[in-house]
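Thread amino acids onto this structure.
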């Protein structure tokens, strides 16, 4: 009999509490995605160089799943989550301390530290993603996805603005201390949330059987179609990573850009997440995921061909953030559908699905940067839009013709036992 679960646990943790424990992930992500472009461009670094640094920092978002199996074994997932939350705080603080060196052309240490933090964020998010279906009721997955994305996207905006303001008002040393502490602190909520009732495998056994076991929980049509949809750049929302450095192209003041890409980002993404949670209970979550990318593409096109004014920038970016909030709720809800409950490799499978999304994001971030280098703001925005329009249309056809319901049968303890 498999040793991963000793018994089925009683699920009933509040969906909102399960969701907001993702805050360390969102708060940390706000630094490389929002604060870093602003702080580096303000120090004279070109946006295409910032995009190059960002593309390296994002590498763990699609390769991190290779080491995520460690959180399915050895220590409890709650313990792993606490470890990685502390690591995120350390990496963000270190990145702030190295900002001036990075701006002076010595960016290797800065980039390496943020890349290590990005890996920690993937491990933290995957650990929480693996735990969540086992802590909440089945009917609460959309609600948990809503709160998860409020934490991720709202936290991203708050974390980004916190990084900008902390460095600007407190300086590098005190700013590093404040940012690092605030990022790690929300993980203490894990002691309120509770833990899974499971006895993890040993690390050696898990790694020895990783690929056969992962294939056993990923070979269904729902899982394979979901992986295909996530890995194609149909709805990457990659420009979120670059908007804070784009304000000057639209003659937008630093104060407005900081507010919009920080607090404004958080507010609009949270509104989108609430709307997305409601919609995700009423339509195919994969269609919602792809469709929001297509809709957001028209905001990018409008910005590309509209006048270079602060109003156009604020309206276009604001609408983009709203669609992003809906999109990420659909993404996580669709992933929970695929994983089911009592999945012995849930953290690993969650990481694999998110890695697929991040391959798409990485592809478009690099392409957006090249578009900016050759054609300025219009090149960046049109590159971002065309990816979503073309690949999104193809993925909607795939969903319609071959997608099925998108919901996986739950992986029972007995079914999982057959894998070992």
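Threaded sequence (420 positions):
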């Amino acid at each position: 009999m498999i040793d991963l679960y000793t018994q089925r646990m009683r699920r009933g943790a509040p969906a909102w509490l399960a969701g907001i424990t993702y805050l360390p992930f969102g708060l940390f992500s706000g630094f490389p995605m929002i604060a870093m472009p602003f702080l580096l461009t303000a120090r004279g670094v070109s946006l295409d160089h910032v995009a190059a640094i960002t593309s390296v920092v994002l590498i763990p978002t699609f390769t991190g799943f290779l080491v995520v199996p460690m959180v399915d074994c050895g220590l409890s997932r709650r313990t792993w989550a606490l470890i990685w939350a502390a690591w995120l705080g350390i990496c963000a603080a270190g990145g702030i301390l190295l900002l001036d060196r990075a701006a002076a052309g010595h960016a290797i240490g800065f980039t390496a530290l943020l890349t290590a933090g990005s890996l920690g964020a993937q491990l933290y998010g995957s650990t929480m993603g693996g735990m969540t279906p086992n802590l909440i009721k089945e009917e609460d997955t959309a609600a948990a996805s809503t709160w998860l994305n409020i934490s991720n996207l709202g936290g991203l905006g708050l974390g980004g603005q916190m990084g900008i303001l902390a460095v600007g008002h407190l300086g590098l040393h005190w700013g590093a201390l404040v940012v690092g502490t605030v990022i790690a602190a929300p993980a203490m909520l894990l002691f309120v949330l509770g833990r899974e009732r499971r006895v993890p495998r040993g690390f050696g056994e898990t790694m020895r059987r990783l690929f056969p076991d992962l294939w056993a929980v990923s070979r269904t049509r729902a899982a394979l179609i979901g992986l295909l949809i996530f890995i194609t750049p149909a709805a990457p929302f990659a420009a979120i990573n670059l908007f804070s450095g784009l304000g000057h192209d639209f003659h937008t003041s630093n104060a407005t850009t900081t507010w919009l890409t920080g607090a404004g980002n958080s507010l609009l993404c949270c509104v989108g997440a609430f709307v997305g949670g409601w919609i995700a209970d009423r339509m195919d979550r994969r269609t919602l995921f792809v469709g929001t990318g297509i809709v957001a593409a028209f905001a990018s096109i409008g910005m590309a061909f509209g006048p270079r004014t602060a109003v156009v920038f604020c309206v276009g970016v604001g609408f983009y953030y709203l669609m992003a909030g809906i999109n990420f709720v659909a993404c996580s809800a669709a992933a929970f559908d695929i994983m089911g409950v009592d999945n012995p490799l849930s953290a690993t499978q969650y990481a694999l699905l998110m890695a697929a999304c991040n391959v798409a994001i990485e592809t478009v971030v690099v392409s957006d940067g090249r578009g900016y280098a050759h054609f300025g703001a219009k090149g960046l925005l049109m590159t971002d839009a065309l990816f979503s329009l073309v690949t999104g249309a193809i993925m909607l056809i795939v969903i319609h013709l071959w997608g099925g319901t998108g919901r996986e049968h739950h992986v029972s303890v007995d079914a999982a036992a057959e894998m070992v």
